[in-house]
Amino acid sequence: MSLPVYLYGHPVLRRISTQVTPEYKDLKELVRKMFDTMYESEGVGLAAPQIGLNDRIVVIDADPVAESFPECAGRKLTLINPEIEILDGDGVTRTEECLSLPGLSENVNRVEHIRLRWVDDDFQQHEEEISGFLARIVQHECDHLEGKLYIDHISPIRKQLIKNKLRNIVSGKTRVDYPVRYAPKK
User: Fold this and answer.
1) What is the CATH number of the domain that holds 67?
2) 141 has catalytic annotation
């Protein structure tokens, strides 16, 4: 069972998420639904704010892009309360997309090497150095937990150029092939 993806303009996408505790009700069921939603939407990552929850939960299955990015092969992660430490200050610019911004793609500069600390859905602690495109996916999804979208990393000129596309998402004029929830009408 998949859940609707909240689209650009919805206030939940701009809120900072809260820590998840071991007492979190039905966490494993929520994680399963998040993976289902991600797969149905043909994404490689999904953060809880994208399904309307401001909780520090991210799911990633990077395997679909492994042919182009070998470091993504077999990488399926459930990140609870993830923390990122930047290990390499040099950025690489690549195109990014987001399920909450359908029909858009923009070049975003991100570091290629991070240290990631998190707990899984059993609250087992993990720490790993991650590089390449997988590090980009993790940073993109963790941005959602801070109320940020990838378009926050683009230049003001680019933002101006995509203003109409963003307006179309907010107004519901953008065609989407997966269940969504639009921003509330003002």
Assistant:
1) 3.90.45.10
2) yes
